[in-house]
Design a protein that fits this description.
The protein is mainly alpha-helical. The chain has nine helices and no strands.
Length: 198
């Protein structure tokens, strides 16, 4: 197995570790969860860079690399639901959209029908990840005494429920709109994808 695919496997393995650590009662373990998440995110960037630079592109990688990304981000959002930071229905919308689009792209690779990427979707992912990092850093930071003490007012603003709600609502609507736009623009390709033609 080539190195980029090994990094993808590592990212999948790190996901439940991150999830369990973040939901633990111990602050140090939550800090470790943040480190694990960042490490997993770095493997995502690095395996993509390796695959492009050295042409380590495999059918296995095309399927599992995007799935590993969605598994990691979905686990993070679900953990934030359990921690009471974000709304469940918003996370359900985000996860459904991401897995539907990812599933279509994987199936298109299987059928050898090119399915174009969308700049809009890439920006959606970028904004989504920035907000996710924000929530994780602020949440863990608020529990870290060395960071929190003396900055209580700042964290009160950063963890304001309305701020998080409307930020998450924006992310949810952006995710939904990008997904629907993507499906509409590629509707002919999708019809071809599910037809009996080769």
């Amino acid at each position: 197995m080539v190195l980029p695919n090994q990094l993808t496997v590592l990212r999948i393995i790190l996901t439940p570790i991150f999830f369990i650590l973040l939901l633990s009662e111990d602050t140090f373990l939550k800090q470790m969860a943040l480190g694990v998440f960042l490490g997993a995110a770095i493997t995502d960037w690095y395996d993509g860079w390796l695959a492009r630079k050295f042409n380590y592109i495999t059918n296995w990688g095309r399927v599992w690399d995007p799935l590993a990304d969605k598994i990691l981000t979905s686990a993070a959002f679900i953990a934030l639901v359990i921690l009471g930071l974000v709304e469940l229905w918003m996370v359900i919308v985000i996860i459904l959209r991401d897995f539907i689009i990812t599933g279509l792209r994987i199936f298109s690779d299987y059928r050898n029908i090119p399915f174009p990427t969308s700049i809009y979707a890439k920006w959606k992912t970028f904004i989504q990840m920035i907000f996710l990092y924000y929530l994780l850093f602020v949440y863990v930071g608020s529990l870290t005494t060395q960071i929190y003490i003396g900055k209580e007012k700042i964290f009160e603003i950063l963890l304001n429920q309305k701020l998080i709600f409307f930020g998450m609502l924006f992310i949810t609507l952006l995710t939904l709109h990008s997904g629907l736009t993507y499906l509409f623009r590629n509707r002919q390709l999708i019809k071809k994808l599910f037809s009996n033609e080769n």
